[in-house]
Write a structure and sequence with these properties.
Elements lengths: L2 H10 L1 H6 L2 H4 L6 H29 L8 H17 L9 H15 L2 H15 L1 H15 L10 H4 L4 H14 L4 E5 L5 E5 L2 E5 L4 E5 H5 L2 H4 L12 E3 L13 E3 L20 H16 L2 E5 L7 H13 L1 E4 L2 E4 L7 E5 L2
Length: about 350
């Protein structure tokens, strides 16, 4: 089994791994699906061990690493162990801790940005006027540049505000994680709500319903259930109302604690910036020279097609650990080159 296949099988069946011990999963009396999952855990760990050994060999040879997450963790751990050897604190990571970190990064990043891209494409297909609004910005930034290899993050990303607004609005309504579990840990914590303090005992779990938070009309207005990426941008005070230049738009900053697709606080998602850049890059590449539309059924009006597309997006469920459309193939999409 390849690394990719093993990882995908593990992440798609993460709940089963929580329920069944790995030894049982590899037993001959369990169904083939469970045995395959058990073998995937062995193969995945073997790949991790091989990658770890390779990085340590490069360190011994004083050669540059592979410049990936494994390389960063191993080198930081080895530096900490060297510091410990000369009297510093013991802060190095054990092999299992390195494997655990790698797995958590894979778990948190698997399908999350891809799901956001999928929902955004469906919603942009449903609302062609917002698709044109997005393409207007992309074309103003890149113009006729055909070679995407020449696009530069430093100059382009800060200008692609509408692309980022599309991500934020998509995550507001169709976030990959619909609830966020938090624990008080070993100490009691104080929670203040409407100027009243509540004491939460140690080892208390609190689950925040991010989906309810992101659709609260008192925060997002009476149109809280509508997908409107333009809500995240406001014209500059010095801008003329008829000016459609996206560079003059100001990004809206929601109140702290009202928008938490990456959680919040010291344990917020470390991949937040990476996800934002990845999403914006994909949007720019897709809609720079192309547009997408839903395929209508015979005799179906544009409004009926839109409603069918939005119904497909709304009929979502939790698969593995993230929100996904249940039948994404039910409404085919057509890509066309822009004239």
């Amino acid at each position: 089994m390849t690394y990719r296949d093993a990882l995908q099988l593990i992440l798609r069946n993460i709940t089963l791994l929580v329920i069944f011990p790995r030894k049982i999963l590899r037993s001959s009396f369990v169904p083939k699906k469970l045995r395959d999952l058990g073998h995937a855990t062995l193969d995945f760990k073997r790949y991790m061990e091989e990658m770890l050994a390779r990085e340590r060999q490069l360190i011994l040879k004083q050669e540059s690493g592979t410049d990936n997450l494994m390389s960063a963790l191993v080198r930081a751990s080895e530096e900490a162990k060297e510091a410990n050897a000369v009297g510093g604190p013991n802060k190095g990571l054990a092999d299992d801790e390195i494997f655990g970190n790698i797995f958590m990064y894979n778990l948190a990043g698997h399908d999350t940005t891809a799901n956001a891209v999928a929902y955004a494409i469906v919603l942009l297909a449903a609302f062609p006027e917002r698709q044109e609004w997005l393409a207007e910005e992309i074309n103003s930034v890149f113009g006729d540049q055909q070679n995407i290899e020449s696009w530069e993050y430093e100059s382009a990303f800060p200008k692609l505000k509408r692309c980022l607004a599309t991500l934020f609005e998509t995550l507001r309504l169709y976030g990959s994680v619909v609830f966020i579990p938090k624990s008080t840990g070993s100490h009691a914590q104080t929670l203040t709500i409407k100027n009243k303090e509540y004491l939460l005992p140690p080892e208390t779990w609190v689950t925040a319903n991010s989906e309810a938070l992101h659709t609260n009309p008192s925060i997002w207005g009476p149109d809280a259930l509508e997908w409107r990426p333009e809500r995240w941008l406001t014209p500059s005070h010095n801008d003329h109302p008829t000016n459609s230049n996206s560079e003059s738009e100001i990004f809206f900053e929601p109140a702290k604690g009202t928008f938490v697709p990456w959680a919040e606080g010291p344990r917020a998602c470390l991949g937040r910036k990476f996800a934002q850049v990845e999403f914006v890059a994909v949007m720019a590449m897709l809609f720079h020279k192309h547009r997408v539309r839903p395929m209508s059924l015979p005799g179906e009006s544009a409004l009926q097609t839109r409603e069918r597309l939005l119904k497909m997006a709304d009929e979502s469920g939790i698969f593995a650990i993230s929100l996904q459309m249940e039948k994404p193939q039910s409404v085919p999409l057509v890509w066309e080159v822009r004239e």
